[in-house]
Amino acid sequence: MTEILIQNADTVLTMDDDRRVLHGADVLIRGGEIAAVGQGLQTGGEVVSGRGCVLTPGLVNTHHHLYQNLTRAVPGAQDALLFGWLQRLYPIWARFTPDEMFVSAQLGLAELALSGCTLSSDHLYLYPNGSRLEDTIHAAREIGLRFHPTRGAMSIGESDGGLPPDSLVENESAILDDMIRVVDGFHDASEGSMCRVGLAPCSPFSVSRELMRDAALLARDKGVMLHTHLAENDEDIAYSQEKFGCRPGQYAEELGWTGDDVWHAHCVKLDAQEIDLFSRTRTGVAHCPCSNCRLGSGIAPVRAMRDAGVPVGLGVDGSASNDMATLSAEARQAMLLQRVANGADAMSAYEALEIATRGGADVLGRPDCGRLEPGKRADVAIWDTTGVASSGSWDPAALLLAGPIQVKHLFVEGRQIVRNGEVTTLDLPRLLERHRSLARKLIED
């Protein structure tokens, strides 16, 4: 079995149960697992120097829309609020084919990998022109990132009072049938799985009450997780109160959308009662600070959520609403926003990094990830702290205060995905040219 020894790292942030921080330490990878963490470890396999570096678990992205990588900084959407932003972009997305889906996913995952991400979820809720969830699954398989795609859906189009054009909505019976197909075909529940599938109706304002309930029942029957957008901004709250006569948290609870097998994106506008509900039920939250700022949605009450015991992870959100997918920068933004809202001592760099690693893994139901300790998966990010970004830092391990936003090396399941700042598993220049060609076609059309 292949062994790799990451030797003599300046600092190892384990994120284990004791939150140990080790200095001058080694991490031994055997196959796809962490075999040992400590000083003076030996191997007959490959040795990777950790000198001048900080080691962390791979970062975990709990919310994304990878297909949006072809629609960044679109005029007319750059300064719009959520609902207007959607109305500008839906007609463009309606022209996508499986090729756009695959190329967008590959480039988005490459961007995540360079920012230290080893495990990413994705929320794909529209399927124009023959697109299918496996377009993204195949993209993740080729690059080698651990993947948690979710089969999203929209069923209420413009003619029924919804936001999306009718061409992008689906029949609810067909949605449920395809959910069964992708779970049966691609979900792997085993420890160390490289692909788990979730079910994810897009939002309470784009599907019916019946589909929300049916998706929850199906997910429990299949043993998979549930995901959707919730309480994202003031418009979202107003819609819920007008259409459902209650706040989003109450609506979610009524339809079976709480529990440790559920995580909701954004939750910017959760009130104290909803935070208590999520705490009691262990319902997870994907916090997307940059997107929330970009769309003017507000600052999510992450400090209150964490203090109450709500599981919180980070998400970059879609590339059309961020418009970047740099997870390390997302962690820094999460820390800074909580300080803006609650004071300079509201969140440390270490806590924000914990949310980005162990926190996200727990939200996605992956206690086998997000930690550097024996028996956990060999997902390791190695950060070079000898460069300009860390120069003058008295605490190089405080990466989010003064440190690089791109990794030097990245391992997923013991396989090196990034080496010396370059993705090893695909031809990135060729992919970029293909991506530019597709983007030009969309703009010209």
From TrEMBL:
One of its GO terms (molecular function) is 8-oxoguanine deaminase activity. Keywords: Hydrolase. InterPro entries: Amidohydro-rel, Metal-dep_hydrolase_composite, Metal_Hydrolase, MTA/SAH_deaminase. The keyword Secreted does not apply. Transmembrane segments: none annotated. Belongs to the metallo-dependent hydrolases superfamily. ATZ/TRZ family. SUPFAM superfamilies: Composite domain of metallo-dependent hydrolases, Metallo-dependent hydrolases. This is 8-oxoguanine deaminase. Its EC number is 3.5.4.32. It is an enzyme of class 3 (hydrolase).
